[in-house]
Write the structure tokens for this entry.
Amino acid sequence: MELRELKLFLEVTNYNSFTKAAEHSYLSQSSLSKAIKKLEEELQLELFDRSTRHMQLTEAGKIVYNQSQKVFEVIEELNVQLDQFREIATGEIKLGIPPLIGTLFFSEIARNFEERYPEVSLILIERGAKVINQLVEEGTIDLGIIVLPEDESKFNITPFIQDNFVLFVNEEHRLAHKKSIKLKELKDEKFIVFTEDFALHDFMIEACQAAGFTPNIALKSSQWDVMIEVVASKLGVTILPNSIYNKQTNKNVKIIPIEKPELFWRLGVITKKNAHKPLALRELLNLLPTLEFSALQNFKGR
């Protein structure tokens, strides 16, 4: 029995859904189901009653759930008690983040980390995700925060956050009155996109092609704020994460939810496979999943 399997079992139970637990764990539903099945085989017990429409724990499942919660509480308490015996985190960490991600999250990462580990310096490297991948693989920087998916054979990958993509338009645009739009409705629009060294460049083109058209690209930029100003000037539309809306200040810009397909911005933290991780880096990796960011709000059209 592995702790990972118990953790996934708790996720499925807490969400009362394999689908939602898989999304939260950044696993395919089939991979999650296999992990739960493996746990049941190891225990030689069924943990879920699959004969009913709504998922329910068996009596054995309830026992495993309660005891699993205690296991993780003990592990957390163990770490707290052992902290006093560990070395003090010092040194510097080189952190690679694309500018858009940095705008939204770096200041809060830096503030929270500095409060806990004042002896450690964070050095920010702002480049496109494709360049950051290369720098992590070369060992030039310690970790990167990039758009998923990424090559698991090259990197250790930890899911970070998720947001919705939305359409940014001028408030007088022909679609501005709509409560939501389908991606295929944009086939005749001029697009403002990131340059080729950004993962979102390929993501947007591939999303449009999957919707049945190749986007007409009017401008490429490495700066999200420039892209929004171009949209405000009625020179095109762009698709960006919902969380960027509150960071921009142009009152002539409106955002519209995208449906069919709904597009998600999934971010992950990557480090080099089999590379030594000094204490300072380990502490930052432990901190990142616990942070809550002001830029992330419930999804609403504006």
Observations:
- The first helix runs from residue 3 to 15.
- The chain is about 40% helix and 25% strand.
